[in-house]
Every structure is written in structure tokens, then in C-alpha cells.
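Backbones bend. We report:
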Amino acid sequence: MKQYIKRLFSDSAAFAIATMGNKLVSAMLGPVFIAYLSMGKYADWGQTNVVTMVLQYVCILGTDAAMAFYFYDAKTVEDRRIYFTNALLFSAGTCIVFTLLVYLFGGPLTDALYANSENYTYLLPVAFLATVGAIVIQHILGYARYSRRVWTFNIFSMAYVIGSNLLSILFLAYFHDGVMGIFYGQLIGQVGVALILLYLFRGEFHLKISRRHLSDLIRYGAPLLPTLLAFWAMSSVSRPIIYHLASPEHAAIYEAVMRLASIIVLITSPFQLAWRPFSMSIKDREDAPELFALVGRALLVVGTLAVMILTFFIQWIYGLYTVGKHGYGMGYIYVWAVSLGTFFNVLQNVFGVGLMIKKKTKVISYGFMIAAVVYLVGNLILVPIFNIWGSVSMTVLAYLIVIVWVYYQNQKVYPINFRFRSIAIYLAVFFISMIGITYVQANHLENAWLYYLLALGVTMGTVFATGLFSIRSLNRIGRALPKLGGKG
């Protein structure tokens, strides 16, 4: 089992290079966009991203997740390439159709999205066409990841993120094109990198439209679409709700909070990229459930403690991020809750690993749909009363619902001893500690660091008091760490 733990950590560390680079670039660009855009236009940028995100989910239709399965399940290299080609052609082709539709008939959607839409006639068509490039990149880099072409994945992941964002800054700062300029940069950067990748991977395409292969991909991936749409609702629908039911200014603050909270992805995304192919590759091992349990508990502890420690410094970081611009106020007090929601979404992949192995993806969808309905209704009720607090509190609640649902459904088909009772106690202590930290920060209490140390100590003590981990298990992990770079 040790060699597989080493391989998971090794793959996570390798993929982390691109992910951390991209997130750091995005974090550095946030203040640039805030500096050059008014709060209303910054909120409009967020509105556009909400639409392109759901477009990407609908067009891909879960075929990227299906490829993670069929990459290993395909009997021959030719069979694998047919799956790959059909997944890419289907997703990119669907997005091109939506781009044409929004170009011809997108006026009413533009008017509904933006408070001031007269300058945004071509915003959605440009953003949709940029999404075509992003979809091509996502499929090809996914294929590179499954075949463990680490440097190809890292180089081109960073190339398209850094390149398109630098072009966005050029259009924004030099040509003063506002929100349109940001998406001009995305269009040129993403389509350009997509064309390069298509050329480099030309030998991996098998230009055959196969009804059987496409049917396999859609049958596996389509049941995940409700999950993805529910995830979209829980990560994005609060933006237009705050925009229209509170104010564009509140939406701008929330957008800044969301962007800053994504720092937690520096920890979670490398793991998430490595987890799917790793878990599928060891699913037939006898000791796989034991390994999954160990990884799930470790991820929970590392992720929650990372959120807590980030919160100790968040006021200072938030001030830098918003460049001291008037109007963004005390948005830093919301960051931990949004970060936790992002982290919980990664955690459910481990708690529901058996559902993926047993192809019970519909069950995951049901949990996300239930949580999405709770989240949507909660936002509609609470945002007009509590503004941003209404959304962030529902973020935490909705993802807790997902985790509990996925855990119990997973136990029915693929039992794993995650020590859920210990997890529940640990999370209760964590939440009490975080509420206390928020109170200290919101009221600017003196000697806040004393409470921070107390909260961290109590939370870490709970890890051992509840039996989540023992000193012995930590020693085993410690002995493995120096060898993580070895072959898996």
C-alpha cells in the first residue's frame, strides 16, 4: 500500500506546479482588475463568468469524467483514442452551436444579466467563443494528465492561464476596453493555446465518429450533469442573486471574496487532479478501502487547518488584494466560509469514491440536487435580509449536506471506515473555533493572536482526542514523506 500512497503524493506534487502557478497568477491579477474596473463593472465580470461556467458544464456533459474511466477501461490504444476524439469533438461542437445562438439571439439574456447592458452587445459571443478554446484545452490536458505527461500538463496549463490573463491586462489597462477587454484577452489566449495543443496531440486523434464510443461517454458522463449544474448553482448562483437582490456593489465584494477564497485551491486542486486517475487505477486492490479512508481523514484535517491558518492573515491579505479601494470594506470576514465550501467539494470526491467505482454517479447527482435546492431557496430568503452573510452561510450548509449524503450512499455499495463519528465531532469543534475567530475579527478585538493560538491548539487536539489520527499513524506518514518523489 505504501507505494500507492507515495504515487498519489508524487502525482499531486507534480501537478501542483501548474495549479499553484495558475492560482498565484490569478491572485495577483485580481487587484489589477479591481484597480481598473469600477465596482459595478467588476460585478459584471463576475456575472459573465457565471454564464461561461455553466456553458462549459453543459457542453462537456461529463465526458471529461468519463474519459478518466475509459482511459483505463479501454482495451486498446486505438479504442482509447476514439474515446478521446469523440469526447473533444462533441464538447467543442456543442459550444460552437451555443456561440452562434447567443450571437444571433442573445440580446434578451444580456439585458437580463447586466444592470447596464448597452456596451455589452458582443460580450457573451466573445466569452462563449473563448470557452470553446478552454474546452479543447481541458480535454487535451486531461488526456495528458491520465497518461502522466506531467510537464506537458504543467507547461500548457500555465501557458494558457498566464498568456490569456496577460492579454486581458493589455486590453484592460492599455486599450481601456473594460470587461470586453478581459474577454478579448481570454479569446486570443485560449484559442491560441488550443490550436497549439491540437497540433502537438494530432497523433492521439482517431478521426472516427463512433456512435458506440460517444454513447459510452455520454452514458457515463451525462448523469453527472445534474451534479455539475448543482455545483454551479452552489458556487455561482449567489452572484446574480446578490447582484439583483442586494446590489452590484455587494456583488463586487462577494466576487472579490470568491476570488480570494480560491487560494485554498492551491492545496486541493493538485490532489483533485491526481485523485481520479489514482483511485481508478487501484480500485481492484484488496486494501483500497483502507487507503481511501486514510486519505479522506488526512485531507479533511489538512484542508480545515489550512482554512483556519489562512484566516489568521486574511485581513492583511484582503487589504492587499482589494488595493485599499473604497467600498470593499470588511469582505475578509467571509473568506473562510467560501474557502471551506471549495474544500468540501473536493472532500466529497473521496467520501464518494465507491460510487464512482461502482458507476453509481446518479446517486451523487441526487445529493447535489438536494443541496442545490436548499442553497437556492436559502439564498433567496437570506440575501435580502443578511446580504453576503446569507450566501456564505448557505455555502457551508449546502456542502455539508452533500458530504453527508455522499458518505451514507457510498457506504451502501462500497463500505469504507472513515470514522465518521470522529469527523462529526472534529467539524463541530472546528466550526465553533471559526465562529469565534470571525467574532474577534469583526469586532477588531485586541490581542487576537491569543485566540488564534487557542483555536488552533484546541482544533489540533481534537484530531487526536477523537481518534481521527494517532501519533503512530502520523509517524508512518512522516517516514513516507522523504520517499514521495520515488517511483509509484
